[in-house]
Amino acid sequence: MRRLVRPLARWLAALSCAALLPLATASSPPPAAPALATATASASPAAVAPNPPGSRPPLPLFVLNSRDANVSRIDRARQAEVERIPVGKEPHHLYPTPDGKSLIVANAVSDELHFFDPVTGALQKRVPNIPDPYQIGFSPDSRWFAVAALRLDRVDLYRHEQGELKPATRLPLPKAPSHLWFSADSRTVFVTLQESDEVAAIDVERGELLWKLPTGRQPAGIVVTPDDRYLLVGVMGEDHVQVIDWRERRTVGRIVTGAGAHNFRGLGDRRHLFVSNRVENTVSILDMQKLAVVGTIPVSGGPDCLEVTADGRELWVTTRWAKRVAVVDIAQRKVVRTIPVGRSPHGLYLHDRAPLL
Known about the structure:
Mean pLDDT: 88
Largest sheet: 4 strands, antiparallel
Order of helices and strands: HEEEEEEEEEEEEEEEEEEEEEEEEEEEE
Number of strands: 28
Shape: globular
Structural class: mainly beta
């Protein structure tokens, strides 16, 4: 999808998902994790009680329309798109600032970042000359900002000082660095390489490559389990999640989810993880303690990026080929409504959301 000079395989590989890097906002504590059923064999997620009467209306959902160069703002109370906000070319990923006061939209082809109010969608500022910000994210300690420049085959690291981004390292990493995730101590950033079928680990302070390991075809989404023990990698060109012991630097398992295993979003209970399977048209529910699939949700249209409401009741999913956002009732494990948006919807964001894992 990136530029026409790339072959079709790269065009498909580049259709990756929204940022999932760990973040602790200074403006407010994370919401409490949703309750779980404790006596079921599958340990599947359970519904959470609805908000009490008189509570504030839900905050809007923002969706990046990559091929339309704009952002849809969805009124969740009305269950409808109410605005399209213009941005730069090919917005793919978005990420909140550590203080929670801004939402960054990364425009990969126009080489710029747009900062928006995460509640109203009002533009705060534009930061030009950020080359190819395909995937972005802050380190857990908020000192570093990482950019996976997929088109340029490199990872750029910026120091985050007093709200400003200062270039620190440009590290070549062929081919097609795609998704990012930091270790819990912020010392290492892990990157999937979609065209060389590898995952790389980078020493953040030194700006040096530590190691690379082989994966299945077209690795995409990546997370570190809450115990900081395993890397989980969505193998988009196949049908599984690869489990890597990153300290021992070896693959220790495969979890079959579905064709086109792509990206991740935690339920917020530090145990259950949603996996979008773009070709299979399903979302798998993975138990990160058992390293096993415990449920499957049908979602048509090429499920891509995922977001979970603060109460843990709804999973919102961009359907990449259908120009819609699907709303999943987690307890029922089914799509209960869809909302039309722009072309090639990719990243999405809720300011009142569940913790990332």
